Description:
The chain is an alpha/beta fold. The protein has one domain: Metal-dependent hydrolases (TIM Barrel), CATH 3.20.20.140. It is built from 13 helices and ten strands. The chain has helices at residues 14-17, 30-38, 42-51, 71-91, 107-119, 149-158, 189-203, 206-209, 224-235, 248-255, 266-276, 292-301, 307-322; strands at 4-11, 53-60, 96-100, 125-128, 132-134, 136-141, 162-164, 215-217, 256-259, 281-282. Helix 3 packs parallel to helix 12 (292-301), helix 5 (107-119) runs parallel beside helix 6 and helix 7 (189-203) crosses helix 10 (248-255). It is globular and about 55 Å long. The protein starts with a strand and ends in a 5-residue tail after the last helix. 45% of the residues are buried.
Amino acid sequence: MQGKIAFEEHMAIRETLEETRSFAGDSGKWDDFTRQILDLEDERLGKMDETGIEFAILSLNAPGIQGILDTNEAIEVSKKANDTMADAVSKHPKRYGGFAALPMQDPDAAAKELTRCVKELGFKGAMVNGFTQKDTPDSAIYYDIPEYRSFWATVQELDVPFYLHPRMQIPARAQNYQDHPWLMSAPWGFAVETSIHSLRLCGSGLFEDYPKLKIIIGHLGEHIPYDLWRIDARMRFSRRGYRGERPLGEYFLQNFLVTTSGNFCDPTFKCAHEVLGTDRLFFSADYPFEKMEDAADWYDATDVMTAEEKKKIGRDNAIKLFNLDLD
């Protein structure tokens, strides 16, 4: 399918590059990976052409700003990353958009930077890499807490999506992964972290306060669609601390959107499709952590949706969500 739109597509700047080394695969591939994630010109655009991806929304690599302990440094690095993406967008406005990298160490600074990125740079929303560390390495701040309500008010006012992207849990909080570090990363821990954070948002009363928020998660829903029925069924007996006024599943189906990034599997897609419906699913690749070719080859060849559904999920839904003008 030609004209696909992808938006879990990562870049890096020199200040955040090294944090990605452990996710880049074999050490012998680091040079190739470095070239790919820093490149915003011919190589990336060429791969998009080869795979039928017309437009990509760029975002900063994980953990990115969320792993910076000093708040002032986080603010400065986020601005540099966003300005780098804005430069690429200005050079290739029909090929690239931008997701703001945000200094969530300071909710007010994050809201200010998001506003700058949307109103001055024309960005399409934000991508934040999971919980934020601040001041001490063992810290982990999640955004369901009251201190972030003013930030969410800004997100709703700007009417842009917020992409909640995975990051790896810090060792001090990862005793259940002891002696199995492979579990902490993409094979399992990424989905665990993002799904827990997503469910915290659903259970915090956030969507009662800001019902128009649009939260995006990748990898076909980080396991949540598969378990959504059971979550609601068991919460009939276990609601202690739950601050939502409605069943959790209602918030997820109302406020969350899901991409195919990094999960190119027919059975998993069919589950997500049946639970969420066509209008809440979107194509994405997860480049360069995944190959564009793998994402596109699977999507173009799969027969688990109609041609009309494939066009909506691969292109039309994103045009509507981001108000894109690609004609």
